[in-house]
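Structure tokens please, single chain.
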Amino acid sequence: MGQELSQQQTLIQTQTQTLAPQQLLVVRLLELPVTDLEGRVRNELLENSALEETPAGESEEREQTDDRDNEVDGAYDDEYNTVDSYSADQRADYASDDDMPDYLLNQNNDEGEQRTFQMGNSDSFYDRLISQLGEYDVSDKQREIIKYLIGSLDDDGLLRKDVAAISDELAIYHNLDATVEEIKEALHTLQTFEPCGIAGRNLQECLLLQLRDEDYGSDCKEVEIQILEQSFDDFTHKRLDKLSERYHLTAEEMKRVYGELTRLNPRPGSGLSDTTGQNMQQIIPDFLVTEDEDGGFVVKLNNGDVPQLRVSRSFKELLDEYSKNRKNMSREQKDAYIYSKQKVDAAQNFINAIRQRQETLMKTMTTIVALQRTFFEEGDESLLHPMILKDVAVRTGLDISTISRVSNSKYVQTDFGVFPLKFFFNDTFVTKEGEELSKVKIKTTLKELISSEDKADPLSDEMLAAMLKKKGYAVARRTVAKYREQLGIPVARLRK
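Here you go.
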């Protein structure tokens, strides 16, 4: 029996989501770092004659008219004693035929200052320090020791290896017999290099090197040195009342001394490049986060050279004139009106998109600071809490994809250096006791175990896994291998 062919018509209902042009514009602007945003805004100014820069004088007059708009989101204020956001544009009704007010975008630059941080250079971290070695009159042996010390510095410019371990490494790897005293002498020479504070063996020594530098000028220098030498723990935990009582300082004097100390650089190597053969690369951070004297955080959005924007007054006046003579307009005048209206709408949409970008960026950054508060207080990577995109999304009420776009290609300048926003996101590790730990903490512990191992008999991944387990981190051998590779540490046989 032949097979019968038939046609059927069915109706299927599906739901798809399509981004509106305005939403698409916001998404594209959100992805741009401040350096690319500058070019995007300049291009828009060239393409749309209804969009223009706001004269500086006018922006200053209008900047104080709406204090309420200076708050990012009241829900975040309890996380900080101070949150200093950008000045938002004036809230007004959408431009219409009868009433078309100016729309401003107010920058939050410090007197127009644009902060630039060098993240790459044609010279490496190692090369820039080695070049300074030529200025010192030292023996050949001391020169070789200093070279090895430079190569042993961490990314932040500190030397966390034990001097005795370095003596062993020099003997094993370089057949150089150097006593602990000879290495200390070489280290003392290296600590006079620029930037000041380089090769400190811990944060305390790093800051003290800066205080003792001849070029450091402060009326309170002696008491600052005493505080770091004798009361470092109280200083790091901001026990100002205790410090002021111990050193016989008034509250005002203590606040001034503390302010001086917090301006020292805890990461002297962060400004030096870690790569070679690259062209000069300048990174302009999108955010500036600093801790104030009261223990709160000031969060600012860096707008770089992005100009303040408004809808062109000449276009507004033209539309006002057209709207008053609608009945008597010729065909050409109506076409001109439609053209002008389209340009004004596009200009207003662009201004609104820029404003929405600013609000989204500030919400995201203030939430990251709230969730990673201990890091912003101490600057210690091991203090990073487990945090994923969803954590920030839930707290801000934004979509996960939005948080992802914000965190890509964005940088923040902190009291401890410049960091990409991705640095603050890390997975969770749960111990047997149910405690949640950041995987950064496990990596830090792993790095410490390897740095203190016997170089003649380095630890295998299996042995490292067992040692981590004793410390409460029950990770598998393959996980140890993965973390080791991510840290750039070779296998045991290559560490001999």
